[in-house]
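## retry 2 of 3
previous attempt timed out at serialization; input unchanged, resubmitting
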Amino acid sequence: MTPDKQILESALLVVQWQRGDKAAFEEIVRLWEPSLFYYLRRLAPSEADAAEWLQETWLKVFKALRSLRDPQALPAFLYRTARNAAISHLRRGEFFESNHEAASAEPCEPGDPLAVLESADQAHHALEKLPLLQREVLTLFFLRELTLEQMAVLLGVPLGTVKSRLHYAKQAMAKILSSGESHDR
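## retry succeeded, writing output
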């Protein structure tokens, strides 16, 4: 589904929910849960933490959705709510120890179908090594395809700050990937 179509469908569902259609919230969850979980997983130390934070996010959204004034602002509202849940837990240190399995040390041959997976695996491991603010902007920009302006609104920071964080995050990611540090687990 294209981002514009997803936003329009979401806006319609918000209006339906605000008018009392209980099934509309379930559709909003179905539409947005994979994206929100993916986003939270990039911030959380473990999958279990991301799942817990996602449940907390949906509870907060459920309570606040009736008062959302601009239905087309749902994506930013969802990501901001998820981000706030994550930051709240990270500040309190309420998360489980993360047990990551070491990445495969076997190199892939060029043209090997597993090479693409290995490359993606390396990128995800490198992403985990970045500081939270850098990991967050890379996830929002490349993996969630938000614009710089949308990211500034979501993060509650000036556009220049988003640009700066993204610049330094790209540099840090390139350094980690080029040094092979992404597999030092």
